[in-house]
Amino acid sequence: MALRIDQMDRKILAELQQDASQSLDLIATKVGSSKTPVWNRIRKLREAGVIGPQTVIVDAEKLGFDACFFVLIRTSEHDADWQTKFLHALRARPEVMEAHRLAGEIDYILKVRVANARAYDAFYQALISEVKIFNVTALLSMEEIKHTTHLPL
Q1: With respect to CATH, is domain 8-47 assigned 1.10.10.10?
Q2: Would you identify the CATH topology of the domain 61-140?
Q3: Which GO terms describe its cellular component (predicted)?
Q4: Alpha-helical runs (H) found in 6-133
């Protein structure tokens, strides 16, 4: 049975998306409830998989990861063995922040965070040594205009 998300759940999720380190008391006050019902709702949302692990958002540039590349990958291989090898290679590379399989002319898009162009080249060389890729296009992000982890609840 699917979990029903009501308006109170949405308010709680919006608060958690804003700052998951808020106290239960503060969240309860903001959403117009008390601590125990808010805790029970959060627990149910976690158990249903709506809420995943709590993490922190780290400023990449302040840690020296100044370059963000979007990497477009086209492959001529589409068999299960190639895909398994490719996915293993991506998951093993900490530089890959996101990876998506696409519909259309491009097969995959990656978001890669590295220190600079040399670090990207090292990533690229390692990737193509592990798996055969037909075509790779790397696009350097000049400026991040918007970044959010918030869903529009």
Answers
A1: yes
A2: Alpha-Beta Plaits (3.30.70)
A3: cytosol
A4: 7-18, 24-31, 35-47, 80-92, 117-130
